[in-house]
Amino acid sequence: MIWDQLTTEQIGRIPKNIPVILTMAATEQHGKHLPLATDRLIGEHFVNELHIAIPDKVLVLPTVSIGCSSHHMDFSGTLTISHDTFVRQVEDIVKSVIQHGFTNIILLNSHGGNQAVGQLLVEKLGYENPTINIVMVTWWKLASEALFSLNESGKGGVGHACEFETSLMLLIAPHLVHLDKIEKGMHTKTFSWSEGDMLRGPKASYYRSTKEMTTNGVFGDPEYGTLEKGKQISKLVIDDLKNIINDLLTTE
């Protein structure tokens, strides 16, 4: 079910243990070949597929479409909000949902820059609402073990506007993928302990702007992106999300 497509009367009749999903995305550069809406389109794809597959088991909130993207501001078109603003926005939305009586809330994250602040939200909201289940999932972390088998570009190949995001966009919105603009990330080397990607986290956190990390805004190798891979990634993530939803439905 889609939250804002229902009437107030319909919302009032929904069982309060149904998992409510809030997608946390971003509007930011994704190299020359992918649109600014990439993170939003990917996150919304997952929740829309859930809505189609299990409409009576999930309630989908409007997306938070601008996230914490200050590290991408060297590239035209990127929009960002501060961490404090992001926390307040998501916190207020979640508190509204809780006030309507819902007890299972999933924060579905589709942007790397939202991960740390998302964890803060889970801890803050969880502490303040001990009877509510607050869960945050970042899609590539959720299915990371299975995604390893699909990774052809190797270490450093899946980071931003990369093999995986390009594959998903070829599935979700192929008309927005500029195939003639695809190019490998122009990475800048740094300390070995600070380097990682979607599947292989760094050993230590070390801030650099995106342009310092990769001069063309791509981290990884989108040349390995394919439609078939996009279908496989989508299925893996959606299956894992279904497992979380079914587990939450069994809680009292």
Automatic annotation (TrEMBL):
One of its GO terms (biological process) is riboflavin biosynthetic process. Its cofactor is Zn(2+). Keywords: Hydrolase, Metal-binding, Zinc. InterPro entries: Creatininase-like_sf (IPR024087), Creatininase/forma_Hydrolase (IPR003785). GO terms for molecular function: hydrolase activity, acting on carbon-nitrogen (but not peptide) bonds, in linear amides; metal ion binding. Belongs to the creatininase superfamily. This is Creatininase family protein. It comes from Snuella sedimenti.
